[in-house]
Please model this.
Amino acid sequence: MSSIFTKIVQGEIPSYKIAEDDTYFAFLDINPLAKGHTLVIPKKETNYIFAMGDDELAGLMLFAKKIALALESVVPCKRIGVAVLGLEVAHTHIHLVPINTVYDIDFKQPKLSFTPQEFEALREAIASKVV
Ligand code: AMP
Model:
């Protein structure tokens, strides 16, 4: 069965898409730890980041870099924190989280909630900065 993220890539489930190319896809996390919390994934379903081929993994990081630079130009923060967990969704994804303190990337913190309009405005602002 396809992962929920494959369904997002295929447009079967909606997402707040930031950017995509032939191989990678980025979208807002629906239960964000911080404003702008974004997930970057390979379109090809791989369950564990370190099971990826070298070139595919390097490409994922370079794609994540592009998204992070766009993200930090929109969301004021000290830097973009990076985390890989995969305990909930077994489709490789990199969390990009705008952080000011270590607590901003503490996955035990309560998640933030935004209206669909707020998510969409944020998505559009970040997407417009991706080069
Ligand atoms: P983990 O697998 O532990 O790295 O966490 C999976 C992440 O995916 C969590 O931060 C969820 O909020 C996020 N997530 C799950 N379903 C969706 C979805 N449909 N759209 C956006 N983010 C999602």
Notes: The chain has a mean pLDDT of 97. The helical segments are 4-9, 54-74, 116-127. Residues 36 and 84 are 16 Å apart (CA to CA). The chain is about 30% helix and 20% strand.
